[in-house]
Design goal:
It is a multi-pass membrane protein. The protein is an all-alpha fold and 355 residues long. The chain has twelve helices and two strands. It has one domain. Helix 4 crosses helix 5. The protein starts with a helix and ends with a strand. The C terminus is likely disordered.
Length: 355
């Protein structure tokens, strides 16, 4: 079993390196076919996209926060949380939403303004010759594929899981829990620094567009408003649904990732790792598509740990007996559990059941 998993990991990493190289290869071929002429720079947008820059800039600066809050209010008004957002849950969600917005900017600013000029002197805007489409393609793949692996490893490595379990402890889906993460998981979010580096090298505008589009997709996937259901209900929309659910994360596929069980053939918390793009799960065989929604969410071993333990473990430990975040607990146990076949278009990988 260990040999098979090692071979699969080697295969997946090999495929990943090939995918990472695709935008570089595309940009190279573009310049070879055009005789090496630099016809545009992504330091300035293509003329057909200039109208969108103020919109994307405003969405990036404050629009996404407003979008999240408004969508959350709609969810509460519709009663989609079923009275689950109480007590410790409320504290965790509010702290996880607000604290990173206050604490992360100085970290990113130091990395971008101090660390990068020191590590890559005289490299600022060195990629400004890359056309906008090339920069967009490069960042979209580099950012999201890296996050896929970051996310996947935090599910498959027991020690890392405890840094991510805060996000899965919520017994509900929606805007309230979309930012619910352990702060250390957020600080070491690998793609943040990768994207910051590419921005320093001159890919700022493509990074802006990728970030906004990705944020909207991921927020929509976490929302308790199942916007994808009409695509499954009406036959005329089925072809669109087929493409959407394989290309990007939708409520159905991502809600399955947050289910508290995989025994019902719908929940798939050991797969469906994609954030913006679900296509990574299709490529690596970690995807499950059922077009159904789980009956319940969270983790069965959840002890409603204190907000400070969830947000700042291992700096602060839980006092809850039996908690995996408590003092002296070395790892979070996982055990293999088979899953019955469901509607799935890629090879099903072994699912590890949460203890």
């Amino acid at each position: 079993m260990a040999i098979v998993q090692k071979e699969k990991l080697t295969r997946d990493l090999t495929i990943s390196f090939f995918i990472y190289s695709l935008p570089v290869l595309a940009i190279y071929l573009y310049f070879k076919l055009t005789g090496g002429a630099v016809s545009e720079s992504h330091l300035t947008l293509p003329s057909w996209l200039e109208f969108a820059q103020p919109v994307f800039a405003n969405i990036r600066s404050w629009g996404l926060i407003v979008f999240t809050i408004v969508l959350g209010i709609v969810e509460f008004a519709a009663g989609l949380y079923d009275d689950d957002w109480t007590g410790e849950e409320r504290k965790i969600d509010i702290v996880c939403f607000l604290a990173p917005k206050l604490l992360l900017p100085p970290v990113i600013a130091f990395f971008s303004l101090t660390a990068l000029p020191y590590l890559l002197p005289n490299a600022a805007n060195s990629l400004s010759w890359v056309p906008f489409w090339g920069g967009f393609f490069l960042i979209a793949i580099a950012d999201d594929l890296t996050q896929y692996w970051y996310h996947r490893l935090h599910h498959q490595v027991p020690f890392l899981w405890r840094f991510h379990r805060t996000h899965h402890s919520a017994p509900y889906m929606g805007m309230a829990m979309a930012s619910r993460q352990n702060f250390i998981y957020t600080v070491f979010f690998s793609q943040i620094y990768l994207t910051a580096t590419l921005t320093y090298l001159g890919l700022g505008l493509p990074a802006l567009f990728v970030l906004v589009i990705k944020s909207i997709i991921t927020l929509g996937a976490h929302s308790s408003i199942a916007w994808d259901k009409p695509f499954y209900k009406y036959k005329v929309l089925h072809p669109i649904a087929w493409v959407l659910e394989r290309l990007i994360s939708t409520p159905a596929t991502h809600h399955a990732h947050h289910a508290d069980t995989s025994g019902d053939g719908v929940g798939h918390f050991k797969g469906n790792f994609g954030n913006m793009f679900f296509i990574w799960d299709m490529i690596f065989g970690t995807g499950l598509i059922t077009r159904k929604f789980p009956e319940s969410y969270g983790t069965k071993s959840y002890k409603q740990e204190e907000w400070y333990a969830q947000f700042l473990w291992p700096i602060f430990k839980s006092k809850k007996e039996g908690s995996s975040l408590a003092e002296g607990v070395l790892a979070f146990p996982l055990k293999a559990k088979p899953v019955e076949n469901t509607v799935q278009t890629e090879e099903q990988t072994p699912v590890l059941e949460q203890a």
